[in-house]
TrEMBL record, chains A, B:
<dbReference type="GO" id="GO:0003713">
    <property type="term" value="F:transcription coactivator activity"/>
</dbReference>
<protein>
    <recommendedName>
        <fullName>Transcriptional coactivator p15 (PC4) C-terminal domain-containing protein</fullName>
    </recommendedName>
</protein>
<dbReference type="InterPro" id="IPR003173">
    <property type="entry name" value="PC4_C"/>
</dbReference>
<feature type="domain" description="Transcriptional coactivator p15 (PC4) C-terminal">
    <location>
        <begin position="19"/>
        <end position="66"/>
    </location>
</feature>
<dbReference type="InterPro" id="IPR009044">
    <property type="entry name" value="ssDNA-bd_transcriptional_reg"/>
</dbReference>
<comment type="similarity">
    <text>Belongs to the transcriptional coactivator PC4 family.</text>
</comment>
<dbReference type="GO" id="GO:0005634">
    <property type="term" value="C:nucleus"/>
</dbReference>
<keyword id="KW-0805">Transcription regulation</keyword>
<keyword id="KW-0804">Transcription</keyword>
<dbReference type="InterPro" id="IPR045125">
    <property type="entry name" value="Sub1/Tcp4-like"/>
</dbReference>
<keyword id="KW-0238">DNA-binding</keyword>
<dbReference type="Pfam" id="PF02229">
    <property type="entry name" value="PC4"/>
</dbReference>
<dbReference type="GO" id="GO:0003677">
    <property type="term" value="F:DNA binding"/>
</dbReference>
<dbReference type="GO" id="GO:0060261">
    <property type="term" value="P:positive regulation of transcription initiation by RNA polymerase II"/>
</dbReference>
<keyword id="KW-0539">Nucleus</keyword>
Amino acid sequence: TGFKWQQTEDNEDYVDMRDMRRVTVRSFKKKVLIDIRDYYTDKAGEVKPTRKGISLRPSDWQFLVDNAEEISRKVKEWEASEK
Amino acid sequence: TGFKWQQTEDNEDYVDMRDMRRVTVRSFKKKVLIDIRDYYTDKAGEVKPTRKGISLRPSDWQFLVDNAEEISRKVKEWEASEK
């Protein structure tokens, strides 16, 4: 359904969540990171990362996976309410 | 398994992923957001958000949920390699 890994010049793996928002899997200092981040195109036409984003350790990612159902439930609760 | 929703003074729902890193569900301009962000304690002892984080729309969150297995597979691939 449109999910497609791509690679940066540094051989990092990323997938577009939507325009200019990526999930990137890479390693830094021998630690794997899952980065969820916004990008922009600079004047030279190069796509660059912005400060809007967060790097997750695999254990953080696992936290999201393990609790995805409960988080989705809470999102639906907020969507249904007049909050 | 330690998962526990808590509430801010503004009635936002959050859960600690780990020390000073939260998932928060809240609404902003009538749009629900899932915020994954680092926090810090200021000199007054108050817990405040940092710039390290990202606000996801429900559709972004759903993208992560829908593709969690594939992203986890890629993480394991990186962990297994010498990248």
